[in-house]
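Morning, I've got a small favour to ask if you have a moment. Here's the protein in full, and shout if anything looks odd to you:
***
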Amino acid sequence: MTKKYQRPILFVYKIFASLLVFIGMFIAAMVFGAANTTVNDVWLALTSNLNNDATLMLREIRFPREVAAIFVGAALSVSGAIMQGVTRNPLADPGLLGLTAGANAALAMTIAFIPSVNYFGITIACFIGAAIGTLMVFGIGAIQKGGFSPFRIVLAGAAVSAFLYAIAEGIGIYFKISKNVSMWTSGGMIGTTWGQLQVIVPFIIIGLLVSLLLSRQLTILSLNEEVAVGLGQKTTQIKAILFIVIILLAGSSVALVGNMAFIGLMVPHVVRAVVGRDYRFILPMSCIFGATFMLIADTLGRTINAPYETPVAAIMATLGLPFFLIIVRKGGNAFS
């Protein structure tokens, strides 16, 4: 059998193994926590109408929380992979390139100026803010002669993010809504409800499906733009669609759980070490790895200091900052 046919078969084995790990982590996330539950309680909560204390807690508190972790992990990982592919920048991440900060600033403005806004309105505001943050970063990155340098984009992202975070903080202090803004932006799945998931999850699913449909084009685009043009790709249209997908995924995530830096940076690098550089393999595997990683982080957050919560964003930062420094030190090839 030739190498051409071996790799997809090998990928099937890898994705099957990843799914098994994901399922095991989901069960662990449902079982472990401040409240004592068993695998049998989880099974009853998912498959029966029994309404005792354990099943109600699992069904109404822990289950929506873990569903949020799954979709947010997948969304941020895929958006990070797309950003790294489109910009050919190994340091690209929604949290590092202005998307998260823009969504936060828009969220603070919406809470301050339209206090009666519903959850759908906040979601739309986060999309708009993420788009503005992205445009600011790439606008600043394109000012200097020489085009987009990966490190220039990162520096622009850091500056824009600091500016937009300052706006969000200033609005919170001036309008005395810091507590409300912090509840949204602190970074965690606590308090997630089924109603919130019904608004957010469709946006994430649409973004993931579109990204998978364009995975082949993204692979070519990530190698060389001239080659992509030579092969007949409409690179401008493809980039525009992919950036809309990134905004959908990042904006949805911020609207649901707030700040989650580094997961979009880490997961794609780990996935490339497992499946190579073909985005037809990277994107679906990033969905599974990202969801699994977020489940692990949320479970740690609930159990390290139970019954108190350890912020998931803090766990992400603890893991992500050394990873970021390794990638900078190795020039982006540490895990690729």
About this structure: The two ends are 26 Å apart (CA to CA). The longest helix spans residues 53-87.
